[in-house]
């Protein structure tokens, strides 16, 4: 067999496999969207801001302490207005970003890598759990990933043709949109500017320098505009919480400087490097090793500019963490802007490690296994989503109970909410965190009246023993509060309480009572002139 023919055939097989992983990555992401996972509380926290606000109101601090870029909020608000309020509509834009990211990464990998290095990079990216998961959530993380890839792709194209300036003008054109969709993309843009500065400033082509300078000026202006118009208000509302609670591990221990090296090692081998999978505290060490080998291999090459471009965003993100402005490594979802760099260098590193295997047959067998493993993971993700289309089964119970309350009970009477219809609550903290956001989301999704912002019908003449009025309170009835007691006394002039039912859909975990999903329902029937029977069925456990 001719040696060149053999190499050509092997190259075609690698190219076909790389394209197959592109298709697999798209299928995984599309499946995740189509199975319609029940919303969970973190998504609902942000979705709560898309209902009663105008587009201008989206500049104000968001409900439930959320932080998200303004243009992302605008797109989601438009989806609600045009397509309705549901998981389908609110996840449409993130999923579109996720699918576009897969295609864009495939193109980016072709600019910087070739052969098996590209195959492994695309395979890792296509089947990585976190980009798939966060690509179908009502959150801006999929936009962060797409924005980062687009920036790197433009710069990679310039690296292949450094005499051309059009890629810098293209970056100048799209950067305002990307910054308005993604906050952390500024780390990628700033890193690119720093990494390319030595080559740009020493380049003889004036048009390239002009394009580079213009793009950076546009980026700076866009960032400052978005920051002062929107970001600073959200950040001020959350800044005190950045270094506490679930974000504590995402910032360097400045009060214990001697622990910073250990913190860096823990972060570097933790979920930040979880591609295609991994865990905290060293659970992603294998990916880290491949990443470092890839970085060393690129450093030994004649052109180190691509390595600088891929690594610079890490430096700016880390600097932001030291300044207390943005978390680094604590949660994978806020680090997706680094995913392109990690997957590219990890793919390159894995191919370099395999090249060190001397026996051709053994090298071929291990290479095949390294390609089949992410393929099996990807197919497993699809099978898992189809067989169990939910994050946790409790989310399904919450959605089905809400459907029963707001849709199943409507034909058999009226349903009113203590919070949204009467303006009363057991406590303000109940509506600042926790499952109350999921409650409001499902109310608006399943209740035609609430979705149309209709007024509750509290006229006793419109109800009967067969068609009672059900008064729903999330978390519990605000008994003892003058407002609620007075309103209940007013209702009792025309109604009597026939039944009081308590429902606990999710008990919540110890120490996380805010995840408790519980309801109380008063069933009211028109008063027929006899004494009230309120309390005779008090605290009876409800069933549905």
UniProtKB/TrEMBL annotation:
<feature type="transmembrane region" description="Helical">
    <location>
        <begin position="14"/>
        <end position="35"/>
    </location>
</feature>
<feature type="transmembrane region" description="Helical">
    <location>
        <begin position="334"/>
        <end position="353"/>
    </location>
</feature>
<feature type="transmembrane region" description="Helical">
    <location>
        <begin position="365"/>
        <end position="383"/>
    </location>
</feature>
<keyword id="KW-1133">Transmembrane helix</keyword>
<keyword id="KW-0472">Membrane</keyword>
<keyword id="KW-0808">Transferase</keyword>
<keyword id="KW-1003">Cell membrane</keyword>
<feature type="transmembrane region" description="Helical">
    <location>
        <begin position="210"/>
        <end position="230"/>
    </location>
</feature>
<dbReference type="InterPro" id="IPR050297">
    <property type="entry name" value="LipidA_mod_glycosyltrf_83"/>
</dbReference>
<feature type="transmembrane region" description="Helical">
    <location>
        <begin position="306"/>
        <end position="328"/>
    </location>
</feature>
<dbReference type="GO" id="GO:0005886">
    <property type="term" value="C:plasma membrane"/>
</dbReference>
<dbReference type="GO" id="GO:0016763">
    <property type="term" value="F:pentosyltransferase activity"/>
</dbReference>
<feature type="transmembrane region" description="Helical">
    <location>
        <begin position="168"/>
        <end position="190"/>
    </location>
</feature>
<dbReference type="GO" id="GO:0009103">
    <property type="term" value="P:lipopolysaccharide biosynthetic process"/>
</dbReference>
<keyword id="KW-0812">Transmembrane</keyword>
<protein>
    <submittedName>
        <fullName>Uncharacterized protein</fullName>
    </submittedName>
</protein>
<keyword id="KW-0328">Glycosyltransferase</keyword>
């Amino acid at each position: 067999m001719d040696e060149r023919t053999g190499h050509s055939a092997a190259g075609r097989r690698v190219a076909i496999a790389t394209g197959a992983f592109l298709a697999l990555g798209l299928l995984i992401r599309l499946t995740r969207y189509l199975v319609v996972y029940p919303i969970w509380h973190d998504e609902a926290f942000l979705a709560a801001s898309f209902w009663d606000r105008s587009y201008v109101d989206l500049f104000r601090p968001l409900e439930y302490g959320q932080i998200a870029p303004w243009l992302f909020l605008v797109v989601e608000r438009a989806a609600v207005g045009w397509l309705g309020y549901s998981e389908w509509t609110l996840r449409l834009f993130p999923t579109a970003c996720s699918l576009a990211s897969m295609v864009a990464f495939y193109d980016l990998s072709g600019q910087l890598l070739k052969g098996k290095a590209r195959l492994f990079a695309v395979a890792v990216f296509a089947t990585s759990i976190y980009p798939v998961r966060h690509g179908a959530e009502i959150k801006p993380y999929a936009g962060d990933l797409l924005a980062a890839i687009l920036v790197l792709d433009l710069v990679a194209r310039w690296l292949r043709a450094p005499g051309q300036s059009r890629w810098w003008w293209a970056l100048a054109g799209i950067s305002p949109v990307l910054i308005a969709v993604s906050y952390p993309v500024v780390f990628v843009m700033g890193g690119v500017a720093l990494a390319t500065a030595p080559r740009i400033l020493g380049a003889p082509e004036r048009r390239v320098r002009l394009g580079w300078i213009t793009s950076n000026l546009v980026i700076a202006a866009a960032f400052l505009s978005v920051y002062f118009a929107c970001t600073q208000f959200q950040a001020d509302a959350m800044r005190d919480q950045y270094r506490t609670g679930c974000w504590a591990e995402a910032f360097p221990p400045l009060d214990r400087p001697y622990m910073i090296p250990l913190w860096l090692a823990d972060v570097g081998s933790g979920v930040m490097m979880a591609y295609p999978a991994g865990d905290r505290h060293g659970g992603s060490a294998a990916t880290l090793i491949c990443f470092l080998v890839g970085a060393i291999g690129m450093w030994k090459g004649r052109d180190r500019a691509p390595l600088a471009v891929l690594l610079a965003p890490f430096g700016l993100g880390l600097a932001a963490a030291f300044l207390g402005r943005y978390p680094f490594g604590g949660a994978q979802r806020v680090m997706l802007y680094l995913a392109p760099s990690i997957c590219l260098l990890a793919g390159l590193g894995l191919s370099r490690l395999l090249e060190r295997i001397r026996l051709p047959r053994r090298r071929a067998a291990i290479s095949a296994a390294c390609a089949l493993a992410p393929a099996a993971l990807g197919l497993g993700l699809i099978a898992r989503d189809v067989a169990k289309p939910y994050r946790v089964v409790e989310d399904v119970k919450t959605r089905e109970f809400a459907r029963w309350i707001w849709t199943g009970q409507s034909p058999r009477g009226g349903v009113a909410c203590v919070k949204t219809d009467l303006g009363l609550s057991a406590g303000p903290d109940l509506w600042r965190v926790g499952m109350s956001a999921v409650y409001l989301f499902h109310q608006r999704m399943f209740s035609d009246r609430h979705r149309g912002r209709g007024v509750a019908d509290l006229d006793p003449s419109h109800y009967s023993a067969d068609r009672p009025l059900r008064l729903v309170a999330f978390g519990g009835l605000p008994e003892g509060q003058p407002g609620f007691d007075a309103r209940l006394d007013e209702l009792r002039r025309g109604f009597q309480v026939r039944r009081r039912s308590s429902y606990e859909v999710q008990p919540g975990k110890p120490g996380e009572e805010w995840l408790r999903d519980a309801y109380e329902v008063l069933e009211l029937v028109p008063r027929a002139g006899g004494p009230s029977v309120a309390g005779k069925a008090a605290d009876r456990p409800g069933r549905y």
